[in-house]
Amino acid sequence: MEPYIRKRLIFGVAMLVTVLLQLIGLLQLSNVVRLGLPIPYFVPALASLLPVVTLLLSILPVACSRIFTERRLVYPAIVAGNIVFTGRVLGKLYCRFVRSHRHNFYEKRWEHWFQKRSCKIGRIERALQCCGFSSPSDRAFPFADSDSKESDMCVKEYHFTEPCGQKWSYETEMVVKSCMFVFFIVLLASFVCLFRWIRAYKKSKAVLHEFESVDEESDNDETPTSEFNKAAEAQMASVDPPPYHDVESRT
Q1: Fewer CB near the last or first residue (10 Å), C or N of the chain?
Q2: How far apart are CA 251 and CA 246, in angstroms?
């Protein structure tokens, strides 16, 4: 396969993967907004933005080869920063939503919305087809007129009999795992970019060292030759030719 065709194939595959990862990030962002999940909005937003940044970093050495050659240290610094940032976000998501499995975290958020009489609870119930948090009458929407947390108005109005607690936490974990998958692919691609830069840097250093060694060898070969020529010329100049009258007398 020719190098040009191979580069086009690699670029096409990278573009396709970037578009798929960006769609995953946008889909998770819509799920966070639609279901009111207890996830910051910037997490799925980063999941849709970082693949594009990584794609630009992967094609930067080819598209801007002059800048890449003149400012070699800027590129690895940007790639290393992308690796550190993505790894930090990935670790935060894992520690907060995957490793802990804190059921109280979701309940506190639900309780906060219930105290504020937020309509987000009703939106979650309609989206997940459920009522209440731990039971159909536990802090459900529509809210009761009194301060009591028990209400069966949700079941009477929507006819949903399943609680929302487990469904809501499950949807949150699925969104988090999807975003973590995107961040992991971005992290892997960033390491590939950094490895490619290290290999190109070592290759350029090897070529430069080879040229320097060839120049040194050529200089060493020219020096003895010139000294030998000078010595031969000096020896020829020191030998005088025989006189002309001696040659005539002999004939």
Answers
A1: C
A2: 9
Instruction: Report if pTM > 0.85.
Output: no
Furthest C-alpha separation in the chain: 149
- Count the domains in the chain: 1
As separate numbers, helices (DSSP H) first and strands (DSSP E) second, the chain gives: 9, 0
Q: Is 38 exposed, middle or buried (0-12, 13-18, 19+ CB in 10 A)?
A: middle
CA-based Rg of the chain, rounded to a whole angstrom?
38
Q: List pLDDT tens digits, range 169-212.
A: 889 889 999 999 999 999 998 898 888 878 877 777 666 666 55
CA-CA-CA-CA torsion sign (18, 19, 23, 26): positive
Share of the chain above pLDDT 90, in %: 15
Place of tokens 């950094």: 194
Nearest Cα residue to 77 out of 60, 89, 94: 60
Domain membership of residue 157 (yes or no) is: yes
Contact between 128 and 135 under an 8 Å Cβ cutoff? The reply is no
The verdict on residue 149 lying in a domain is: yes
